[in-house]
Specification:
Number of domains: 2
Oligomer: single chain
Strand content: 15-25%
Helix content: 25-40%
Order of helices and strands: EHEHEHEHEHEEHEEHHEHEEEH
Structural class: alpha/beta
Strand order of the largest sheet: 2-1-3-4-5
Amino acid sequence: MRRYVIINDSYKIICATASSQQIANNFDFTLEEKPEIISLDHISILDLTFSDKIKKGDNVILVCDVLSTGYITNLISTRLNQLGAKLKFISVLVDAYDENFEPNQQIEEHRDKIFSVLKRKMIKYRRKAIKHELSNGTLGVIRINPFTNTPIEESVYDSPINNRVLIDNDKFISLIDEKHVKAGYYKFNNLIHPYFFDMDGILQDTKIAKALIFEIFSNLNKNWNHEPEIIFYPKGSAIHKLDFDILKSEVFKNHSISIFELERFQTNEGWRFPHPPKYMFSIAQSKKH
């Protein structure tokens, strides 16, 4: 028997991923009923810095594409409690929670709040629990990215380095100005680096940016005999400082190229990209990118 929730402006909706944002944006509300939709970016999803949007007494609905381990749900639920707000419902497309995998008391308390289109438990293991089966080859696994809930299919062994590096270290150093090399100890992606490159400054310098772009794409064309129709770049990266007219007018000489920003999330292991939303697939279908 299906359960339903009537959503109106008495609720606030929190979207924790780019995919869930697309789900919430397709909800059909009248202007009078539409609730406030809060989309968490890569910073607020980990630091939960949304106290300016959530007030004491607010009733909140969390929208996710997949409920897997409950990790994000726990983070958000704990923060809402601290703010005096209530997590009333959890709306997901797929409820893949495995109650036998590291039982989670907090998630169990929310079970009655979960509304899903499909409930399909995904059996989960820690690597150490199946290390012998993995080492002797008796068990094959598909690794799942915990931040995107998508299979990890790429392998370093399937990525020939000579076809992936478009500009080597020496050439890169020769093209930039020494003022863009920052010596010292810099924290980035939770690691300490003894030196750093000011990519914002590099890409804002038109002369240097053009030289880098021509070097990179001339090397790309040696391995790929196509003109791109779509270019994607990471959200919040220094690429947004780049003058894209240089790409369109001077590198590819094609003003019809579409350029899109891709959502990404900061994690303890570095940046991670979520599963691309359906509309991105529809845009990229049959295109060269």
